[in-house]
Amino acid sequence: MMPNLYPKYLLCILYFFAVATASAQVVTDSTAKTVLQIISAKRYNFQNRDTATFISLAGDVTLRKEKTLFYCDSAVVNQQQNIVEAFGRVHINDADSVHTYADYMRYVGKEKKAYLRNNVRLTEKNGVLTTNELEYEIQTKIGIYKKGGKIVTGKAVLTSTEATYYGDTRDVYFRKKVVLVDPDYTLKTDTLLYNMETEVARFLAYTTIVSPQRTVRTNEGYYDRKAKKAVFGKRSTVIDKDFELTADNMAFDDASGFGQAQGKAIYRTKDTANRTTVIADDIKFNRNASSFLASLSPVMILEQNRDSIFIAADTLYSAKLSDLRKERNVPVIRDSAYVRSVAEFQKKDTSSNRFFEAYFNVRIYTDSMQAVGDSLFYSLEDSTFRLFKDPVVWTENNQLTGDTIYLFTLNKKPERLQVFENGMAISHVSGDYFNQVKGTTINGYFVDGNISFLRAKGNGESVYYAQDEDSSYIGVNKSTADVIDMYFESKKPQRVVFRNDLKGTTYPMRQVNHIELRIRGFKWLEQRRPKSWTEFIKI
Question: Cβ distance 280 to 304 under 8 Å?
Answer without folding.
Answer: no
